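ok, trying the design again with the full structure, not the truncated one.
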């Protein structure tokens, strides 16, 4: 495996329910951590050497950590392999998926 892309997209109603229970939750802590774990498993025995991450809050602009809508990370491994991990909690109210849309390409 040299590259991977893993994403989880959630709807706004789902995100609102999560925020009611855990106001500091966000796509990184609730989704990307699981994808990072899978990436480390798929890419073993390689070790991550660099991570670039970006997050933001435009729909949930009052999120306490300003990370309420989306988060993306690019993990580079010691041999140059890379994984792109993304989570988004800002899908429209009426999205075809009831809870989440999940995809993984390796």
């Amino acid at each position: 495996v040299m590259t991977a892309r893993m994403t989880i997209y959630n709807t706004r109603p789902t995100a609102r329910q999560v925020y009611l229970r855990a106001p500091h939750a966000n796509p990184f802590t609730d989704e990307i951590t699981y994808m990072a774990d899978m990436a480390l498993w798929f890419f073993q025995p390689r070790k991550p050497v660099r991570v670039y991450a970006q997050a933001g809050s435009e729909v949930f602009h009052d999120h306490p950590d300003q990370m309420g809508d989306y988060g993306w990370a690019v993990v580079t491994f010691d041999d140059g392999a890379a994984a792109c991990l993304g989570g988004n909690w800002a899908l429209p109210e009426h999205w075809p998926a009831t809870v989440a849309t999940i995809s993984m390409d390796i």
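Keeping the full-length input from now on. The chain has one domain: 3-97.
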